[in-house]
Design a protein that fits this description.
Pfam families: FAD_binding_2, FAD_binding_3. One of its GO terms (molecular function) is monooxygenase activity. This protein has 495 residues and is of the alpha/beta class. The chain has twelve helices and 19 strands. β3, α1 and β4 form a beta-alpha-beta unit. α1 runs parallel beside α8 and α8 crosses α11.
């Protein structure tokens, strides 16, 4: 089943403006995106803007209202100003929060501070002059992207499960095979269907299982109507002058508590032997007493944490096994007509604080690469996108382990170095993935086709890239290696 061409108008001189968005001339490229998650919808929106014909296929019967919070930095929003309606909705749903470190007993260990890209004197971030409000409720963010898809009339076909991917080299198409046998064909098929994507067989030649990192995350969102039932939480929200993202550090665990009048969420990441019951699904819920079971000294914790957990609604706490795959050097099929984006290409642990951000960056990069490649060069354009993105994304993946090692030590006195904890560096949030694709497409394509020299510059200046494995990072954690050696490799400064 191919995408229908809704219009014969290929007039490249006519301005097409929809919802205040100026669309690039049509490319004639047909694109099918599998998955209506954050990465899939952003890729669809950006592909539409770049003149491609696009539709989304989603296995669920509708947009899921599950998930808690996500932290998304400026590099994901470099193009937000090009979407006036979406910018307004983002302004309504994003949370202007400060970061604050606490001991587990509830005592502040440092004064609250701004996210690093919003501090005075730092480098100019990719979304400037927008002040980036980092925290969002994931369901609201998904709704925002969905609303933009609706305004652009991007079709979404629901309740279709894709069970296999194929590539027809002779016809120059990628194929997504549905459970009922339907075959969806397009110039480019984008696998944005998450960590369990069936695209690994055609991309890597075998299905790839995610491996446990040895940690479990318990996540919950507190509905506004439930806050009245938790007096300590209600009191803090009434008294605080500004929203906070609180981070409590402990031995082999940490707690993140988002406190705002629009979204309140809590997540506890703890070392936990895999008993086989935690799964990567928002449907895997546990009772409140399970969350803190077996943790010594819980009775001394901040009552705000324990009260919030105990006051959580029934079946609202998700037990999420933190699993990921080793970095994969291939995201595209052999001929390039199938490409993975988001978690299907690169899964993250939450402490990277950048999984959603990288998925959104993917969309802007891929759409621009496909525009540059055009109808005849779409397949090589997909491989150019992979070349431009792989090292950057893999390095960001690795920061998840460095950050977790920083968090899972006794708090002590943080006032002198709190600003340096979980540092991302300007290389991460000054990056504009669309502009980078535009500037480097020809050089990267020449490298792939003619082996001319090419070196990525979307990494810290002076960084010596090295491959790594999940097994190595987990072993470092077991050995208690906490030196942030990764962030000494190149320029991770913020100025």
């Amino acid at each position: 089943m191919a995408i229908a061409d809704k219009s014969n108008n290929m007039d490249t001189k006519a301005n097409v403006i929809v919802d205040g968005i100026l669309r690039y001339p049509r490319t004639g490229l047909d694109i099918i995106i599998i998955g209506a998650g954050l990465g899939g919808m952003m890729a669809a929106i950006e592909c539409w803007r770049k003149g491609h014909e696009v539709q989304i296929i989603e296995k669920e019967s509708g947009l899921l209202a599950t998930g808690d919070i996500v932290a998304i930095g400026p590099s994901a929003w470099a193009n937000l100003q090009k979407y006036p309606s979406m910018l307004e909705e983002w302004s309504r749903i994003s949370v202007d929060a400060q970061t604050a470190y606490f001991n587990l007993d509830g005592k502040p260990s440092a004064e609250p501070f701004e996210f690093e890209y919003n501090r005075p004197g730092v480098a100019q971030h990719a979304a400037y002059p927008l002040k980036v409000r980092t925290v969002l409720a994931r369901p609201q963010l998904a709704q925002m992207l969905y609303h933009q898809c609706e305004r652009l009339s991007i079709p979404i076909s629901w309740d279709i499960s894709i069970v296999a991917y194929e590539e027809d080299v002779a016809s120059s198409v990628g194929i997504a095979v549905a459970a009922d046998g339907h075959r969806f064909k397009a110039d480019i098929v984008v696998a944005a269907d998450g960590i369990g994507s069936k695209s690994h067989m055609v991309v890597l030649g075998e299905p790839i299982r995610a491996m446990s990192t040895g940690y479990t995350c318990y996540r919950m969102t507190i509905p506004t109507e439930n806050i009245e039932l938790i007096p300590s939480l209600r009191k803090v929200l009434e008294e605080q002058k500004r929203s906070q993202l609180r981070i409590y550090k402990g031995h082999n665990l940490h707690v993140v508590l988002v406190l705002s009048k629009t979204v309140t969420a809590l997540a506890i990441t703890r070392e936990e032997e895999d008993a086989g019951s935690a799964v990567e699904s928002w449907a895997s819920t546990v009772p409140s007493e399970r969350v803190l079971a077996g943790i010594p000294g819980v009775e001394t914790w901040d009552t705000l944490i324990t009260d919030t957990i105990q006051g959580a609604a029934e079946n609202s706490i998700v037990r999420w096994k933190l699993a990921m795959r080793n970095p994969q050097t291939k995201w595209t099929s052999a001929a390039g007509h199938i490409i993975q984006v988001g978690d299907s290409a690169h899964s993250f642990v939450p402490t990277s604080a950048n999984g959603a951000c990288m998925a959104l960056e993917d969309g802007a990069s891929l759409a621009e690469c496909l525009r540059r490649g055009g109808k005849k060069g779409a397949a090589i354009a997909a491989k150019v996108h992979e070349l431009l993105r792989y090292q950057r994304v893999t390095l960001v993946q690795r920061t998840g382990f460095t950050n977790r090692r920083e968090l899972h030590t006794a708090t002590g006195e943080l006032s002198k170095h709190a600003l340096d904890l979980l540092r991302q560096g300007k290389w991460m949030w000054t990056h504009n993935s669309e502009a980078y694709a535009a500037e480097n497409f020809d050089k990267a394509r020449s490298h792939l086709e003619s082996s001319t020299p090419f070196q990525n510059t979307n990494l810290p200046v002076g960084h010596q890239y090295e491959d790594w494995t999940l097994e190595e990072e987990v072993e470092k954690e077991k050995l208690g290696i906490v030196v942030p050696d990764l962030k000494l490799n190149g320029d991770w400064s913020v100025v």
